[in-house]
Fold this sequence. Notes:
Elements: H1 2-7, H2 9-39, H3 47-51, H4 54-80, H5 100-103, H6 122-128, H7 130-160, H8 168-172, H9 175-201
Helix pairs in contact: 4-7, 4-9
Amino acid sequence: MRRHLRDNALTIFFLAIFLAALVGQAFVGHSQFNDEQIAHRAPTVSLGSYVTSSAFLVDVMENWQSEYLQFVLFIVVTVWLVQRGSTESKPPGQQGTESDEEQKIGEHAQPDSPAWAKARGARLFLLSNSLVGVMALIWVGTWFAQLVTGRVVHNAEQLSHHEAPLSLWEYAGTSEFWNRTLQNWQSEFLAVASILVFSIYLRQRGSPQSKPVGEPHRSTGAEG
């Protein structure tokens, strides 16, 4: 058990603080929601009702979809684009999908390589693109969930003001939906650009996201 915890400590740590933050968001969001209900002389709701409501889910989904979009783009563009000196980039000149030998597939597969790495055709293609494929599916799914739950919240407000509700595709064209979307996208893109540039010149001893302290600034793809 101790070895299992050690070998998976990074994942366990982030899942733990993710759950803590999600629970915290549920409690404070529930309190804010009920404050607004009281201000509008509407009935309050229980915590259970709130966390299963579109009011809570739309906030969660709009954050999740932007995070997964960030990963999808980063995985894809780092195949072809480089940033000299960054730990997050391949060295210049190594752009592209690389050779079978470099990727250890087909006849170059190792004895303990995944079985599909030794195959050809569809199985090899699926394995070769499985990471971005799953990330893209999660991104599309959470973005669609944001659209659906956001429409529910928007239409509830419309009805409270005696205004006509919108269809799903009408809501998809509203400034509210795109404001929710773009305010998250821009922050994710800025964060990626920051780590790309900062990792050229700044160091964190012992971190795999940083070069060794004495590594030259121009060194690309080096990890501590």
